[in-house]
Amino acid sequence: MDVLLFIDEDRATDLRVGVALELVRVCGGHINCIQVMSPNALVASGSFGTAKMLADRAEDVERHKEMLRDATRQKMTAVGASWEYHSFDGDIVQSVIEQSRLVDVIVFSAERQPSALNRMIPSADELLPRVRVPVLAVPSRDPMFSIAKPVIIAWDGSPQCAYAVRSALEPLRCASSILIVTVEGERPEITAAQAKAYLAHHKLQSDILTVPATIHPVSTVLIETVHAHRAACVVMGAYGHGRAREFLLGGVTREMLRNCPVPLLLAH
């Protein structure tokens, strides 16, 4: 797999690095590290005013960037990963989109993260509607990620979900088991049985679990299933009903990004 890994000076960078390294360790592949300096970086500490203040801030930024590159090099070489590192100036989301055209998955944080360099890093939620590559959204808590454990597919029959499953074939081959989870009462045009047959055509064994519809949100039911089956990852479509409608209805995608304890492989 070709993995695009976003690097920055936020507290969640180590978690993203760990997830990317585990992915290529088990599945094989190459990590493209990308560090982006947004236009706000030079004024992140309120350095308005004199040219000297801006120059000092610029020197500080360059020093931090070099430290970040060195720290990343140490992590990658320590495990013998295949990797490369690129720095860019510009909008973070737009830079990630441009650099994602020849990768298989983007590793990004599920939620916004404060950064010493960029003040605030966007969330996977801000990236998903604009990118054409699946995003592995990493929670800010330690996910203890291992792709060689059970993986859950949150199946709703949407085009987004089908795309997520097709995009996840390689990681799914590394999973210890695959569980297709559906909610009782839903009648998707493309059923969980058809998804199971599709995986079987690719020599992947899976099981179907139909969970009862409750008064609780779908995201709560999915997270309970993650805990019950000790899943390492959830594969699902993002914003299957459109962002505006999901926002009004509570939003499975949004709630999963906010509360799921394991990485989400999302496709829009």
Notes on the structure:
It is a single chain. By secondary structure, the chain is of the alpha/beta class. The chain has helices spanning 13-27, 51-78, 92-99, 124-127, 159-167, 169-174, 192-201, 218-229, 243-249, 252-259, and strands at residues 2-6, 30-37, 83-89, 105-109, 113-115, 119-121, 135-138, 150-154, 177-183, 207-211, 233-237, 264-267. The protein is elongated. The chain starts with a strand and ends with a strand.
**Shape call:** elongated
| Helical percentage | 25-40%
Largest sheet: 10 strands, mixed
Assign the CATH class of the largest domain.
Alpha Beta
The order of strands across the largest sheet is 3-2-1-4-7-12-11-8-9-10
User: What's the total helix number?
Assistant: 10
Strand residue percentage: 15-25%
Helix-strand pattern, N to C?
A: EHEHEHEEEHEEHHEHEHEHHE
CATH architecture of the largest domain: 3-Layer(aba) Sandwich
Q: What number of domains?
A: 2
| Separation of the first and last Cα atoms | 19 Å
Query: Based on DSSP secondary structure assignment, what is the total number of beta strands?
Result: 12
The average pLDDT value, as a whole number, equals: 89
Instruction: State the secondary-structure class.
Output: alpha/beta
Unreliable residue runs = 242-250
In CATH, the homologous superfamily of the largest domain goes by the name HUPs
CATH names the topology of the largest domain as: Rossmann fold
Alpha carbon gyration radius: 19 Å
